[in-house]
């Protein structure tokens, strides 16, 4: 089969690899019909996530059709259409029992590695470095899904791939970011980053009862989407001073909750950006947390900081004193996607959310390396790329699953 | 060489115990030590002295105050060289250090005999005796330290929380034949009779280490303890404690494993089986135990596809790079 593999920083190649096999009784093999590039995949592309190995198959947002099942998977059938959550979760450990699926205690075979880096290990993730399991990802024609009796959600007839694909990650991620804000009537929520997760966080904040949502970015088409499709007020941080503007908009108090949907590769004008950029390039810090610092300083006293943006390791000049002295609550984590898939599917069916508005590009899998570059550089007004692994390929790409 | 199994209060692990565990773990690691390097120096000293004894026995004899014992001096030179070569060429200098200690004793005995001879000069003889006595002390110290450094015990304490009732955890563990399913270094465990069992561990290069063990304690749903039999080639003991976690959070499993590797080839093999970090290996084993009980399988990525094979052959490069 064909798969999009990582060979180094800014070096992705679509190559022929062996087809996946069932390795454990609770595995399933999925024929991938749609897969997407996530903003967090760009951290891998730019080489900021450690423990990647040459040849790793990328991709953690995917859906498709079940083509093979392990002996212990009883709730799925061959031929079922499913969307797969990006964390791998066993469903029966302490964390899974409490619906903290991205913290599954069993799914990371390299838990010892994560323990060295972070103290304890979170769940294994698809296609996201060996620190979180080294699982082959879904930017491929086929993918093996462990604990397939827990994760994959069956898609009802009548819904297109594009309507449900983002249940795999970014829609639940934006939603959890808003839910973490514990929104009460009258709340103002500020969202840093108007990429797909930021846009879904804005939509979700309104769904959960926010009075106002203020979105911060600098890319015109993303600010436009935030205004026109998600209903936010916007701040272009290259034009306006963010903290002054937020203070002015909230009577000097600051937003009730701040969402950092940017993560470790933030950008900002000014000398502090150069400082972090250089330190990160020299491996003196793993992340450049400009958006995060600003979100902390902007948040109102006793407010909430919600962080769906991905961070890898160790941060510089982190204003913890501001958090402590002003009673700010920090809520973060990889998304417990399993928890949100079904309720959000219902909201899609009811017409409360139509996630397709973020899609700007639909491409065959072969185009993945170009698509990463375009998405990273925000060329061609790119907001979200959906890849079709079986389009433009003769046959179905697999001798093993021929005729499926 | 029986080992007493270390026992711990069944309750919460205290800070003190945690730090003890670290010390034990660290001390169980085998490394090329300063004793090794010192043994090597003594090896070169042996060769140098031996060569002198063979080539200039007369001069040397004069120096220490004995005469006309050239043949004896040359044979002692040969012995020195053999001990030196042994010390330098073997991985286990401890054994060869004993030949040096033995040689020292012989030297002292001969010097003692020379004292009683009226043909010897007493002053240089006394100096030579003092020098040999000093070297004997050094040799013995080095030998003792080497023996301890190489054949250090492996002693590990680890624990893990398992989201299943203690009864189930106990039942699973008590079926010893299932242990190799999650214990990396074990190949098989066969229960024989009267609470005895036969253990086979994997060693490097397809070798095996086998021994027999007996149950020393079996309290259902609380504790299992075992110990190798007196004549076992490897002395080992261990126990596993099953405690109910508070608030219905399943069980806490605490394991203590103690291996005392024997001297020689098998000792070296045991050291390799446990590798550099025995505590990490036991931790991995416990994780697999938890995975089997909680999920029914051991999550893995072995056998999944990757583009690494494409690296060896020619690749189709995309992304405008070709």
Q: What's a concise summary of this model?
A:
Chain A is α/β, with parallel strands linked by helices. Chain A has helices at residues 41-45, 94-97, 111-118, 161-164, 170-179, 196-207, 220-228, 242-249, 271-281, 290-298, 320-325, 337-350, 368-376, and strands at 2-8, 11-16, 28-36, 56-57, 61-69, 81-84, 87-88, 124-125, 142-145, 153-154, 188-192, 212-217, 233-236, 257-260, 304-307, 329-332, 361-364, 385-388. Chain B has helices at 15-27, 34-55, 57-64, 70-89, 93-116, 122-150, 166-174, 265-274, 278-295, 308-312, and strands at 154-162, 186-191, 196-202, 208-219, 223-228, 235-244, 251-260.
- Compute the average pLDDT of chain B: 78
Uncertain runs of chain B with pLDDT below 50, 5 residues or more?
Answer: 1-32, 314-322
* Widest β-sheet, arrangement of strands of chain B: 1-7-6-5-4-3-2
Give the terminus-to-terminus CA distance of chain B: 67 Å
CATH topology of the largest domain in chain A: Quinone Oxidoreductase, Chain A, domain 1
Helix percent band of chain B: 40-55%
Give me the CATH superfamily of the largest domain in chain A.
Medium-chain alcohol dehydrogenases, catalytic domain
Could you describe the 3D structure shown?
The complex is a heterodimer of chains A (404) and B (322). In chain A, 27% of the residues lie in helices and 20% in strands. In chain A, strands 3, 5, 6, 9, 10, 17 and 18 form a seven-stranded mixed sheet that branches. Chain A has a six-stranded parallel sheet with strand order 13-12-11-14-15-16, sandwiched between helices. Chain A has helices at 41-45, 94-97, 111-118, 161-164, 170-179, 196-207, 220-228, 242-249, 271-281, 290-298, 320-325, 337-350, 368-376; strands at 2-8, 11-16, 28-36, 56-57, 61-69, 81-84, 87-88, 124-125, 142-145, 153-154, 188-192, 212-217, 233-236, 257-260, 304-307, 329-332, 361-364, 385-388. Chain A folds into two domains: 2-169 and 335-388, Medium-chain alcohol dehydrogenases, catalytic domain (Quinone Oxidoreductase, Chain A, domain 1, Alpha-Beta Complex), CATH 3.90.180.10; 173-332, NAD(P)-binding Rossmann-like Domain (Rossmann fold, 3-Layer(aba) Sandwich). Chain A is of the alpha/beta class. In chain B, strands 1-7-6-5-4-3-2 form a seven-stranded antiparallel sheet. In chain B, helix 2 crosses helix 5 (93-116), helix 2 packs antiparallel against helix 6 (122-150) and helix 5 runs antiparallel to helix 6. Mean pLDDT of chain B is 78; it is low at 1-32 and 314-322. Chain B folds into two domains: 15-30 and 152-295, 2-Layer Sandwich (Alpha-D-Glucose-1,6-Bisphosphate, Chain A, domain 4), CATH 3.30.530; 34-150. With 322 residues, chain B is an alpha+beta fold. In chain B, strand 3 and strand 4 form a beta hairpin. Chain B is built from ten helices and seven strands. Chains A and B meet through strand 1, strand 2, strand 4 and helix 13 of A and helix 9 and helix 10 of B.
């Amino acid at each position: 089969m064909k798969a999009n593999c990582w060979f180094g920083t800014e070096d992705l190649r679509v190559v022929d690899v062996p087809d996946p096999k069932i390795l454990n009784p609770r595995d399933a093999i999925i024929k991938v019909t749609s897969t997407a590039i996530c903003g967090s995949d760009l951290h891998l592309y730019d080489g900021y996530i450690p423990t990647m190995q040459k040849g790793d198959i990328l991709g953690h947002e995917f859906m498709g059709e079940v083509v093979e099942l392990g002996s212990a998977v009883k709730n799925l059938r061959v031929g079922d259409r499913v969307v797969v959550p990006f964390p791998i979760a066993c469903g029966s450990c302490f964390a899974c029992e409490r619906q903290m699926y991205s913290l599954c205690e069993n799914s990371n075979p390299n838990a010892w590695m994560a323990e060295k880096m972070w103290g304890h290990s979170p769940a294994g993730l698809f296609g996201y470095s060996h620190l979180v399991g080294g699982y082959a990802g879904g930017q491929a024609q086929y993918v093996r899904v462990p604990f397939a009796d827990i994760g994959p959600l069956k898609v009802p007839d009548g819904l297109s791939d594009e309507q449900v694909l983002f249940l795999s990650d970014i829609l639940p991620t934006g939603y959890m970011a808003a839910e973490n804000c514990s929104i009460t009537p009258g709340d103002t929520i500020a969202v840093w980053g108007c990429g797909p997760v930021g846009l879904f966080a804005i939509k979700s904040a309104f769904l959960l009862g926010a009075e106002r949502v203020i979105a911060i970015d600098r890319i015109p088409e993303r600010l436009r989407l935030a205004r026109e499709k998600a209903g936010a007020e916007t701040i272009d941080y290259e034009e306006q001073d963010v903290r002054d503007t937020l203070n002015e908009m909230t009577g000097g108090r600051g937003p009730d909750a701040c969402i950092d949907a940017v993560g470790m590769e933030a950008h900002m004008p000014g000398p502090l950006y150069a400082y972090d950029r250089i330190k990160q390039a020299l491996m003196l810090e793993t992340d450049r947390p400009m958006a995060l610092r600003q979100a902390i300083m902007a948040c109102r006293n006793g407010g909430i900081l919600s962080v769906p943006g991905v961070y890898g390791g160790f941060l510089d000049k982190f204003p913890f004193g501001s958090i402590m002295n002003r009673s700010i609550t920090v809520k973060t984590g990889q998304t417990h996607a399993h928890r949100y898939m079904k309720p959000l599917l219902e909201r899609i069916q009811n017409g409360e959310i139509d996630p397709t508005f973020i899609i700007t590009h639909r491409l065959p899998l072969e185009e993945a390396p170009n698509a990463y570059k375009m998405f990273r550089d925000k060329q061609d007004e790119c907001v979200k790329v959906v890849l079709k692994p079986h389009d433009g390929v003769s046959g179905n790409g697999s001798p093993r699953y021929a005729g499926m | 060489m029986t080992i007493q199994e270390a026992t711990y209060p069944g309750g919460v692990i205290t800070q003190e115990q945690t730090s003890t565990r670290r010390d034990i773990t660290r001390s169980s690691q085998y490394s090329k030590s300063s004793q090794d390097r010192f043994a090597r120096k003594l090896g070169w000293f042996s060769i140098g002295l031996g060569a002198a004894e063979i080539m200039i026995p007369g001069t040397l004899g004069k120096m220490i105050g004995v005469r006309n014992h050239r043949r004896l001096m040359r044979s002692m030179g040969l012995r020195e060289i053999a001990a030196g070569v042994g010390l330098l060429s073997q991985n286990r200098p401890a054994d060869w250090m004993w030949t040096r200690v033995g040689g020292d004793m012989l030297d002292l005995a001969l010097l003692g005999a020379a004292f009683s001879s009226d043909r010897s000069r007493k002053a240089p003889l006394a100096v030579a005796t003092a020098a040999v006595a000093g070297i004997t002390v050094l040799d013995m110290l080095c030998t003792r330290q080497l023996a301890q450094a190489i054949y250090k015990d492996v002693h590990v304490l680890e624990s893990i929380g398992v989201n299943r009732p203690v009864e189930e955890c106990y039942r699973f563990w008590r079926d010893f034949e299932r242990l190799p399913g999650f214990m990396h270094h074990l190949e098989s465990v066969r229960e024989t009779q009267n609470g005895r069992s036969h253990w086979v561990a994997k060693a490097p290069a397809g070798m095996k280490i086998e021994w027999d063990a007996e149950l020393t304690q079996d309290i259902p749903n609380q504790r299992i303890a075992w110990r190798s039999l007196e004549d076992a080639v490897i002395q080992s003991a261990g126990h596993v404690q099953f405690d109910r976690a508070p608030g219905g959070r399943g069980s806490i499993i605490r394991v203590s494993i103690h291996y005392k590797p024997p001297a020689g080839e098998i000792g070296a093999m045991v050291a390799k089986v446990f590798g550099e970090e025995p505590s990490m290996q036991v931790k991995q084993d416990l994780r697999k135990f938890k995975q089997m009980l909680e999920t029914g399988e051991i999550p893995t990525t072995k056998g999944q596809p990757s583009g690494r094979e494409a690296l060896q052959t020619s690749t189709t490069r995309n992304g405008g790079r070709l």
